[in-house]
Amino acid sequence: MQGQAQQQAYDRGITIFSPDGRLYQVEYAREAVKRGTASVGVRTDSGVVIAADKRSRSPLMEPDSVEKLHKADDHIGIASAGHVADARQLIDFARQQAQVNRLRFGEPVGVETLTKNITDNIQQYTQVGGARPFGVSLIVAGIKNGEPRLFETDPSGTPYEWKALSIGANRDETREYLEEEFEEELSLKGGMSLALEALDLNDDTELTPEGVAVATVTSDDDGEYRERSDDELADLLAEFDLHAEE
For residue 231, how many other CB atoms are within 10 A of its CB? Predict the structure, then answer.
């Protein structure tokens, strides 16, 4: 009982480390991310792919109201997993930082620079009393000087760079699949196929164009962010043999 009471005391203090060096609220924020639907990122030779599971839990919900992919700048896209409201706050912050960089320096913000700006903001909420950490992780994908870059943000405020990654539900299983199937010289279409196959692991129901979102940032020029339409997704799912059976 005494040990349990001691843990509860550290639960209530976001700025206080437990005796074994843990911040319980940050760990709970990571658990909140795991409860979110999955998002996947894949880096290829010709660009980066981000994909998100937006399968609705009710037929009454409008699919377009589920926001999982976001355009931060012309050359950067962001996918989220976790609390949607927290994600929206960080997306707005990222867009502001991207515009500030353009106005101040007259050039697009770097993908790594923007990611670290976001994680610096996240980290502040692990050291301020009366606030809680963001219960969301982001995949930040973009192009800098023609080079595809792919980053993850963690609720602790730590950035990581990846070749391919998954956040949200069933992260470990999806990451294991990505580790087995990822190839160094993937084409953009191969990256989309791998991302969709990874998402298909996360639910017993089949993928549908309305239940998934896919966007790419290609290496052409300075990078171009583009989300795929439902018709394009239907063609891709049929081509990759992932379409729901009639």
Answer: 9
What pLDDT, on a 0 to 100 scale, did the predictor assign at position 162? 98
pLDDT value at position 246?
43
Token couple for 92: 């707005």
Mode of pairing for the β-strands spanning 159-161 and 212-218:
unpaired
Strand bridging mode 147-153 / 136-144: antiparallel
Mean pLDDT on 180-186: 94
Instruction: Give the closest residue to 159 by CA, choosing from 95, 115, 109, 97.
Output: 115
Q: Is 169 strand, coil or helix?
A: coil
Q: How many CA atoms lie within 13 Å of 178's alpha carbon, on the beta-carbon side?
A: 24
Distance CA 32, CA 16 (A): 20
Sketch the domain layout of the chain as residue ranges. 35-58+66-239
Q: Tell me what the pLDDT averaged over the chain comes to.
A: 90
What pLDDT does 5 receive? 52
Whole-number Å distance between alpha carbons of 178 and 108: 30
Q: Give, in words, the CATH class of 35-58+66-239.
A: alpha beta
Q: Residue 1 has what pLDDT?
A: 42
Tokens of 172: 């470990």
CA distances from 23 to 29, 133, 230 (A): 10, 10, 42
pTM of the model: 0.92
